[in-house]
Amino acid sequence: MNNCFFLFVCLFVSVFHIFTFLMRHFVFFIAEGTEVYFLKEGERISLTCSKCTQENYDGLYLYHRFLDHRYHKEKEVLFFNSRFPKPSVRSDFTHKVDWNGSFSNLSITIRNLSANNEGVYRCVYHSQGKKDTSCQTYILHVKEGTEVYFLMEGEDISLTCSQCTQENYDGLYLYQRFLDHRYDKENEVLFFGSRFSKPSVRDDFIDIDVGNGSFSNLSITIRNLSANNEGLYSCVYRSYGKMDTCQTYILHVKEQKNDTIKTPEPERCHVSQNLMTAVILVCLFFSVVIAFILLFPRVKQRVKKENHTEENGPMNPQSSTEYVYEDMRKNPVYSRVGPVQRPQA
Questions:
Q1: Contact predicate 175/90, CB 8 Å
Q2: Which end of the chain, C or N, has fewer beta carbons within 10 A?
Q3: Alpha-helical segments (H) within the chain
């Protein structure tokens, strides 16, 4: 326990100094007025372009640029001329973009998002002979719409299949493909025809229940999961000449082990031996440095005194205090007063 406390203290001090260094030398920022969104494929997002000054502008542009800079030049998504009653959407976004509002305050909705819609979007107002004004900036991060589940054998899981566009589809299919690709072809789990009142489940999947729901929003529950239920599940809506994969799920099913019940042991601090060794070496290094700083002045003073004694060498007998004392006895001080008078017999 003492070792763990010592280790955590050292790590805390190190992290604090690293954080202080980063804050002093680096600045991470997003431009003021930028809104950032994290979305999944198939979702929708509404962006608002509105005038940020009182200038009279000729046109409104919505530009798009990829985050990874695959194209250096911004791509025009939409243009709204102030003299026209409605904006014009470029061909690449015709089936994905809806709009609502006016020239000075326009709401733009992008439907059925995909990885190609990820990037930076700018609302730019333009006037002839003047500098363009960028009023709003949005950053969209679009994540693949796959949900991953880690389950144990015998558990249940509910999957939802719902339409991701406003198209009129003829049928809904739920497909399964094994993760280890034992079969190249997907297995059909369920089919729901738009003209039928309920879906039909294939014979190989008897443990599937279909709860309350509709063709456009169906909840599917797989009960008593086993290793055979592991894999990739896709909700696919089909119509003549068109197919959209709206939801994707990955199920990892782990085997249930019947382990003997063990008495829980007290919680211990498990620390990597290499990490512990590194921390101890660092602390020892700083201890040696501190000891050197404290002892160096004393050692230096003592060495200096010894060197001074060696330079002076042994004392000269003529200058020895002992010989001076002997001279003083041979020539007593009281001899200067006069001869000593001795009493007569």
A1: no
A2: C
A3: 2-25, 273-312, 321-330
What is the spatial order of strands in the sheet that 231-239 belongs to? 146-152, 242-254, 231-239, 171-177, 187-193, 200-201
Give the count of beta carbons closer than 10 Å to the beta carbon of residue 89: 20
Contact present, 157 and 222 (Cβ < 8 Å): yes
Cβ atoms of 60 and 80 closer than 8 Å? yes
CA–CA dist 246, 243 (Å, integer)? 10
Q: Name the CATH topology of 146-254.
A: Immunoglobulin-like (2.60.40)
Q: Which residues contact 134 (CB under 8 A, 6 or more apart)?
A: 122, 123, 124
The backbone torsions φ and ψ at residue 31, rounded to the nearest 5 degrees and listed phi first, read -55, 145
Q: What is the CATH number of domain 34-143?
A: 2.60.40.10
Residues of the chain with CATH 2.60.40.10: 34-143, 146-254
How far is residue 23's CA from residue 198's CA, in Å, rounded to a whole number? Answer: 59
Buried b (16+ CB within 10 A) or exposed e, 321-330: eeeeeeeeee
Smallest CA-to-CA distance from 138 within 58, 40, 55, 38 is with 38
First-to-last C-alpha distance (Å) of the chain: 100
Looking at mean pLDDT, say which of 38-42, 197-201, 315-319 comes out highest: 197-201
48-80: pLDDT as tens digits: 999 998 889 999 999 998 876 555 678 999 999
Please tell me whether residue 154 adopts helix, strand or coil conformation: coil
**Contact partners, residue 185, CB within 8 Å, separation at least 6:** 177
